[in-house]
Design the sequence.
């Protein structure tokens, strides 16, 4: 039976998970692929830390060139993460004629153009099922499952950490920092969770999905991003009273011939499936003109789930390798009906707004006056009573408004003397 | 550019949908596949009915042999449905060296062994994404996405018609026959809806999923089936009061080294994602040891959705065709940890039970007495008041019980004089 040799870059959590699967499911994979997947070398700069999977010492190296320069290694698995040196390693692997499997959404989102160009030039392939939604086979579904479909919109809950934090806040009424601390205790959040909380990880994943669905590789700075750090327990509670859950959504939405891209906290109607996605779970809601509205749901984190996705890529890569010159190679197809990106200023939405005001007569009139000037129409308003408090919240829902008008109105209202904190504004998505 | 020739068997609703996509998305597909998909011939026994897509007259024929015997046709698309003559046509196509794309779940479930054997013998491939879940790319996800995963269980809402009926009953408080009539008016139900309502369509699809997940092609008579015809508006209402929705579920569940297969109405906790699947939507909830608990959701019916799935199969078939001898061929891999099927008698579940009883003292004691004899433990009981009625419902939830014991107890209770209708029993699934 033919042997296909693998080199693993990055012997961390997911890497160890992949090795476990290769060991325990070897014969299952042999049956499916028709060849043997042999792990030939494992590179990590740290070979001291204990892992819960035993590997022969001679497989280990701290020198990536032992993998990149080994002509017998067919597939390189990159699980280092981050941009450098992952990028250089992947590029060298492609130049050396190897296939690449990676879970690196940051790299694909930030340096995808160079990577995909190199893939094309060297007539190799790159596989990245684990980059979005861990074990949910969303990449495959979008690459191959909806071949002829035209995408209308994508709503994704793409970051397990932030979804866990928001779920904790909603279910256990703890505040943001307590929920974050809990996420760290469970190992769901990195020590430096800024990429998660600030929405950057969700943005990276959105860029990968947009590439697959619309054939465009957009830059990070072309997408509006807002994280969950401003979300307070107060807003979680008021949102629920209004019939909504707050989720960090990654959104791609066709607006006529433009594409609107944004990542931000969003109020979602409680009855919608996306509102029911709790804890570290992810979900991708995709609307197309043929297949209709689809939802893909599953754990967005966890070693076994991510490793499962890596191994499904290994299966695909191994099958493609065996087909050799006749292999099928995937490139996203540009949706020519999309002419460009829609600037966030033009984007329209309903909004939830919380003002913290001095509790005295005339405050509401002052706020409403400014809103009226900007042609912003109020759908509902509640002044929340708080005993013995000098500063009280006013919670408002406003009808659809241009992002730019809302921002200007909030700036103006922020200058009113009765306003004690910058107003909190959160979009409402009526899906 | 290479041309790949298609022959279409069955010019019905979905067939017309496929033709529309091939016409309108030709260049998109060309880009993705690297060849031209050319529809060479369309066969239907009825060429008189009006379709909303124009095709050149010379493509049409009533003689399937014009397709099966045409050596230039590479791929045969079978959209006739049913067992005969679809089976004979597919077999002949395979013998003639053609690839086959089909949406025919009945055929795969009932005659799959012969079909798959023939596929193997002739080294061809058969594609059937449209057979389950219409446009949801569930087949691809199970075939390729979860390569190394071991499946624990599948819960599927696999029939759009019955889910529509149950949703109507729940949302609009109409009874079964009114909901069915409504489904027919909307075109969601066939004139003869017995396959849907009786659970047979759900069973067909379960068999296809079980083949993919466990590598076993089971017979229809190995699976317990119960339809929704017994579900009354009364039960829908009481279930909701208890915190449940009633869904027709297709279940495959690993129990130690046995596999339990069943199709039946089920009470699902309202908070579960599956309980939120409304109307003609389908959902497949899959639990694996690596990827975890996944859900795939989308419209389970509709011409465009089914046609989208057929076209994604055409893409795959065309790519495989181009790879020629080096193509990847899929066969389900048998899960050797499963030794056999678990007889339904041994299956255990909580149950919802409704008795219709004469409203007089001692009735509950009589029922409870029989249950105690069979060691069936009551979790909750409500006697529903109905003014001026001589026969009143008693609604009960019982703790986990063996199917066989429950059946025997119901039989015994059915003989009590105070019982005026056969008791209604519905399983409760605590997912």
Sequence:
């Amino acid at each position: 039976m033919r042997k296909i040799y693998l080199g693993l870059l990055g012997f961390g959590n997911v890497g160890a998970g992949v090795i476990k699967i290769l060991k325990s499911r070897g014969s299952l994979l042999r049956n499916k692929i028709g060849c043997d997947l042999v792990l030939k070398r494992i590179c990590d700069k740290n070979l001291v830390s204990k892992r819960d999977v035993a590997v022969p010492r001679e497989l280990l190296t701290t020198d990536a060139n032992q993998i990149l320069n080994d002509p017998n290694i067919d597939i390189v698995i990159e699980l280092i993460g981050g941009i450098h040196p992952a990028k250089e390693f992947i590029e060298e692997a492609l130049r050396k004629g190897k296939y690449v499997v990676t879970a690196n959404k940051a790299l694909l989102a930030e340096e995808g153009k160079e990577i995909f160009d190199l893939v094309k030039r060297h007539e190799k392939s790159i596989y990245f099922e684990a980059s979005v939604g861990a074990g949910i086979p969303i990449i495959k579904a979008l690459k191959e499952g909806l071949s002829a479909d035209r995408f209308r919109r994508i709503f994704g809950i793409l970051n397990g950490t932030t979804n866990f934090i928001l779920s904790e806040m909603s279910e256990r009424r703890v505040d943001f920092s307590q929920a974050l601390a809990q996420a760290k205790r469970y190992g769901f959040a990195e020590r430096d969770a800024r990429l998660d909380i600030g929405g950057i990880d969700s943005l990276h994943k959105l860029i990968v999905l947009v590439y697959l669905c619309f054939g465009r590789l957009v830059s990070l700075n072309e997408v509006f991003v807002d994280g969950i750090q401003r979300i307070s327990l107060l807003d979680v509670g008021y949102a629920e009273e209004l019939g909504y859950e707050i989720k960090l959504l990654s959104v791609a939405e066709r607006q006529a011939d433009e594409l609107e891209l944004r990542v931000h906290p969003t109020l979602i109607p409680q009855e919608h499936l996306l509102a029911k996605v709790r804890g570290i779970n992810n979900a991708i809601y995709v609307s197309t003109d043929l297949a209709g509205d689809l939802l893909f749901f599953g754990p967005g984190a966890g070693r076994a789930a991510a490793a499962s996705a890596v191994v499904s890529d290994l299966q695909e890569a191994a099958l493609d390798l065996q087909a050799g010159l006749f292999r099928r190679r995937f490139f996203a197809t540009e949706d020519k009906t999309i002419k460009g990106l829609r600037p966030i200023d033009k984007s329209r939405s309903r909004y939830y707004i919380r003002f913290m005001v001095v509790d005295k007569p005339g405050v509401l009139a002052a706020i409403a006056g400014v809103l009226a000037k900007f042609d912003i129409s109020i759908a509902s308003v509640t002044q929340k009573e708080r005993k013995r408090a000098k500063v009280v919240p006013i919670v408002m829902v406003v009808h659809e408004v241009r992002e730019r008008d809302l921002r200007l109105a909030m700036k103006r209202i922020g200058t009113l003397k009765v306003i004690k904190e910058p107003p909190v504004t959160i979009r409402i998505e009526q899906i």
About this structure: The first strand of chain B starts at residue 3 and ends at 9.
